Structure prediction request, 292 residues.
Amino acid sequence: MKKYYLISLSFLLFSCSSSDDTEVVKDDTTPTEFIFEYNLHSSLPNDWTTEFYKIMDVLKKVTPSEPKNYFNKLPIYAWNSNTDKPYKNKIGDATGASISGNSEGRFMVLEIPEDEFKFNSMHRYSVIAHEYYHVYQMSLSKNFYDGNIELKWMSEGSAATFESLYIQDKYSFNYFKDAQTSVHSDAINNPSIFEKFSASGGDKDINYSSSVFMFLVLTKELQKKGMTEAGAFKLAINDFWLKNPTDSNWKVKFEEIFDISVPGFYNILKSYTNDINTVLPSESLKLDSIYN
Prediction:
């Protein structure tokens, strides 16, 4: 499980907060392209490293992270878990998979468990897409970058959905069915707890399954309103974050963008069963169709 909430807390230690929902304007000092700095340790298998570069190239083309004056570059540190913290001098004790930070700035951590190489786990690739999406998310929303919004089921639900869509699209493998089936009954009976990491941890959101379920229900409801499947996903994955929501106004932004009130949506969830198979997207859905 990604440790994104803990990372968000660390951001607040050195980030300037802003609740302004206006567009961040680039100035003459902002680079024209978002810059990633790759630090891939020799402990990683060659085939993973090759695939990493392919995945990043695809993601940067399909969903380019737009450089902003507050965020325009990011180092990536990746290694095999069988090696003990090879980048400790740069990232301290950071482990797992996350967007983290320290006094020097932010960085992506990709510590790939050794067993994922042994058993060819698809997560060794999907995690790249998941963490990349958070970078993209930050480029869409300064408030998300600043840690001014938590909203776990939308923030992690969108990231975990994005990774599954990427794997489904590029590897013809249904990662939803493989890793996101543990939907807790509270996703339909008590959905508000998934707004906060502290209220929905443990077995209630394994691999963000419950958050993904809620996110997918939202896309189904948008399609019932007459939207195309690709259009519904674009609205939820992309356009909501362009509204630059905060903890204090996200419910207003939610209703503005989706034309569904939050209480109304939570009530709609009760009409579903907590089975991921009932809300899966089409296996033919492509990221290209969502963004183009």
Observations:
- The chain has two domains: 4-12+30-146, 179-281.
- The chain has a mean pLDDT of 91.
- Residues 152-171 form the longest helix (20 residues).
